[in-house]
Amino acid sequence: MNRPNILLFLTDDHAPWSLPAYGHSEMATPNFDRLGREGALFENAFTPCPVCSPARACLLTGRTPSQTGLHDWLEEGIGSIGERDRLANEFTLPRRLQAAGYSTLLAGKWHLGSRGRVPAGFDHAFALAGSQGVHSGPYTYCADGEPCVIEGNKSQVVTDHALKLLAAAPADRPFFLNVGYIATHSPYDAEAHDPERVREVEHLMFHDLPEYRPHPWLKNEGMVTAACGDAAELRRRYVGYHAAVAELDREVGRVLAALDERELRESTIVIYVSDPGCALGHQGFLGKGNSTRPLNMYETSLRVPLLIRGPGIDSGRWIRELVDHYDLFEVILEWAGLPPGGDGFPGRSLAPLTAGKAVSWPGEKFGEYGDLRMIRTERYKWVRRYPNGPFDLFDLEIDPRETFNLAGWEDYRDVQAELDARLADWYSHHEDPEKSGLRVKELPRHNSHEAWRDGHREARGLQVY
Fold first, then answer.
1. Are 74 and 81 in contact (CB under 8 A)?
2. How high is the pLDDT of residue 221?
3. Are β-strands 175-180 and 392-395 bridged in parallel, bridged antiparallel, or unpaired?
4. Helix (H, G, I), strand (E, B), or coil: what is residue 173?
5. For residues 241 and 182, what is the distance between their CA atoms, to the nearest angstrom?
6. Which domains does the chain show, CATH number per domain?
7. CA of 146: how far to CAs of 104, 105, 143, in Å?
8. Is residue 142 exposed (0-12), middle (13-18) or buried (19+ Cβ within 10 Å)?
9. From CA 384, how far away is CA 372, in angstroms rounded?
10. Rg of the chain's alpha carbons, rounded to an integer?
11. pLDDT value at residue 465
12. 412 and 393 Cβ atoms separated by less than 8 Å
């Protein structure tokens, strides 16, 4: 096979529970459905870190946060944070592809520094600059490093420029196009999205709307309780979130249509994945791994949609194996005809799974967030918060919603000890002691949003980056 084009949709806080392909019975998402129907759907795809920037770094470097030193989201509105290229010393996926002759293009969210510049490895970039802000209104983007203010819905603006980059890509080289939408990130505000998309979803019954029980570790009790404790307010946010999903479906459809128009469908691998997942009242919080103190590794924070379509990929295949962003890094290298990451890289190529080949596949995945580490097997999840806890042990076979913590129970002592040993052994091969998350102190827990943000900024000084 000739080297394929690679189109990577890397979106923001998109939870698989919001998609019909993953069981949502009320939503209409014809373009996501099309990707699942024409390609492979991964039922058990995970992020290695349940927050934006490090999750993206895992996919784009193929390495763990404890290898890169990037352990939390970057508040890019702060000059010193936004301007620094956090992957400057990494041989990233776009750098590898660019060196191999690919035309490398970015449209939308990057969230790894380099504000105001084209990130290293890209030939051209139309990127968000500074804080990503709300979903509609005037916003300053950077087009190949030049600031430009554009009014409108961000998803639509990002697609407009993705299509321009695609149209201008050299015909004699394969392209790598990274499209980053932010629509499913907070604020979950219906008014911020296309009114037509809101009308599509505001009539839904939302049978999956959770009965809110506030988590005891809420980061900001007052703000989140006010949002979730009021059924009308939680529904309003559900409408906003699902309007964002409908908006993404429309924009993904526009890009897929452009591939068809340019007769690129048969030569392009399309990947749709999110950075982390998202809870909307599930587990008693809004958001992801940083929505609680201590931080969390719940399934709603970790699970992401993963849809892949293209040459060599079986149509309509549902894949049950546990996979993650490290595996995506490796398979993109393989599809591009490049060697694998090598020693110390934790992923393995997804190619045999997408082609329906029988292959022995590990039944475990690992994750981290600062001084928190996790091993998740097909049955159990063990979460260790260094040095002294609290710890989590869930039996996902009998308790898939993670409502009952078995850590410390005598009946599970051997299970806990085995998982803890496997976790320590894995990280002994996948961390740099100078960049390890175990050097990161837990972020402080405050009851006011302003105090938390101040503490969060101070804690960044303790992190490796």
1. yes
2. 53
3. unpaired
4. coil
5. 11
6. 5-362 (3.40.720.10)
7. 18, 16, 5
8. buried
9. 6
10. 21
11. 31
12. yes
Residue 232: helix, strand or coil by DSSP?
helix
465 near 70, Cβ under 8 Å?
Answer: yes
Return phi, psi of residue 50, to 5°: -85, 50
Q: How far apart are CA 43 and CA 249, in angstroms?
A: 19
Beta bridge partners of 180: 108
CA torsion, ordered 69, 70, 76, 82, to nearest 10 deg: 30
pLDDT of residue 234: 83
The one-letter amino acid code at 451 reads A
Q: How far is the C-alpha of 429 from the C-alpha of 66, rounded, in Å?
A: 11
Structure tokens at 125: 């970039």
Is residue 370 within 8 A of residue 50, CB to CB? The reply is no
pTM tops 0.90 = yes
Q: Which tokens is 53 given?
A: 């920037």
pLDDT of residue 220: 64
Sign of the CA dihedral 74, 75, 77, 80?
Answer: negative
Residues 6+ apart with CB under 8 A from 116: 83, 129, 142, 145, 147
| Residue among 128, 110, 114, 125 nearest 82 (CA) | 114
pLDDT mean values, one per 10 residues, the chain (465 residues): 92 97 93 97 98 97 97 88 88 98 97 88 93 91 94 96 97 97 91 84 82 79 56 86 96 98 97 97 91 95 98 94 98 98 96 94 97 97 95 98 96 98 98 93 41 38 34
Alpha-carbon distance of 276 to 10, in angstroms, equals: 10
- Check residue 295 and give left, alpha or beta (phi > 0: left; psi -120 to 50: alpha): beta
- Please give the single-letter amino acid code of residue 39: G
Angular region, 2: left φ>0, alpha ψ -120 to 50, beta rest: beta
* pLDDT number for residue 211: 73
pLDDT on residue 194: 79
DSSP letter for 278, please.
-
Q: For tokens 């002691």, what's the residue?
A: 433
* Confidence at residue 18, expressed as pLDDT on a 0 to 100 scale: 96
Which is nearest to 188 in space by CA: 238, 131, 139, 153? Answer: 238
Q: What are the backbone dihedrals phi and psi of residue 384, each rounded to the nearest 5 degrees, phi first?
A: -110, 125
Bond prior to 294 in cis (omega within 30° of 0): yes
Q: Reduced to 3 states, what is the DSSP secondary structure of residue 440?
A: coil
DSSP state of 444: P
- Confidence at residue 416, expressed as pLDDT on a 0 to 100 scale: 98
| Burial status of residue 407 (CB atoms within 10 A of its CB: 0-12, 13-18, 19 or more) | middle
DSSP state of 241: H
Q: How many CB atoms lie within 10 A of CB 329?
A: 25
